[in-house]
């Protein structure tokens, strides 16, 4: 079956574009960088967050391909924890000319709707802007961008816009509908 998929690309072109969201009150939310490159942990986060919203583009990747992603100089994964349990993550992909893509961002389903997403996106976007401070061979960030699509959660676009991201491109295409893979093969929410 074919479906219509709309993909929106958004950007910030200055650190002053970021409109941060505070940490949710009353929750013990911490955010830490996954500083040891781990294909297993990266794949866990990817499937745990995206399993119910059809994130499946990385599922066929080999271990070596996952390793190349997490070991790329300047690539970073920042993880939100609720009392020690992973709640969601932001993955930063450094690109040429001072560009950083927020290539993946989201929350594990059990943690959605608790105001963690705005705080995590704010934190991750700030880390995209100061990426060169942690990677001395990298030039200063001049642009942070991301994309979202009509398959993502219903609050994704509004969260990006509230954080100061501006739309710069929209693409509409007909695609084959894929199964919701769940957090591991054969599991469905």
Observed structural traits:
189 residues, seven-stranded mixed β-sheet, single chain, 24% helix, alpha+beta, 32% strand, globular, Aminopeptidase
Descriptive notes:
The protein has 189 residues and is of the alpha+beta class. The chain has one domain: Gcn5-related N-acetyltransferase (GNAT) (Aminopeptidase). The chain contains five helices and seven strands. It has helices at residues 39-50, 63-71, 116-129, 131-134, 156-162, and strands at 2-12, 29-33, 76-82, 85-95, 99-107, 143-149, 166-176. It has a seven-stranded mixed β-sheet with strand order 2-3-4-5-6-1-7, with helices on both faces. A hairpin with a 2-residue loop joins strand 3 (76-82) and strand 4 (85-95). It is globular, with a radius of gyration of 16 Å. It starts with a strand and ends in a 13-residue tail after the last strand. The mean pLDDT is 92.
């Amino acid at each position: 079956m074919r479906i219509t998929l709309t993909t929106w690309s958004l950007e910030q072109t200055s650190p002053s574009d970021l409109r941060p969201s505070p940490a949710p009150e009353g929750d013990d939310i911490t955010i830490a960088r996954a500083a040891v490159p781990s294909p297993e942990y990266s794949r866990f986060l990817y499937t745990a967050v995206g399993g119910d919203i059809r994130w499946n583009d990385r599922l066929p990747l080999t271990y070596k391909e996952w390793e190349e992603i997490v070991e790329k100089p300047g690539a970073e994964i920042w993880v939100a924890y609720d009392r020690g349990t992973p709640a969601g993550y932001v993955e930063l992909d450094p690109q040429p000319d001072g560009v950083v893509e927020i290539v993946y961002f989201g929350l594990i389903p059990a943690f959605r709707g608790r105001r963690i997403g705005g705080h995590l996106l704010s934190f991750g976007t700030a880390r995209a802007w100061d990426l060169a401070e942690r990677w001395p061979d990298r030039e200063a960030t001049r642009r942070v961008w991301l994309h979202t699509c009509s398959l993502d959660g219903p609050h994704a676009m509004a969260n990006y816009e509230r954080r100061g991201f501006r739309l710069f491109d929209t693409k509409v295409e007909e695609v084959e509908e894929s199964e919701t893979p769940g957090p591991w093969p054969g599991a469905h929410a």
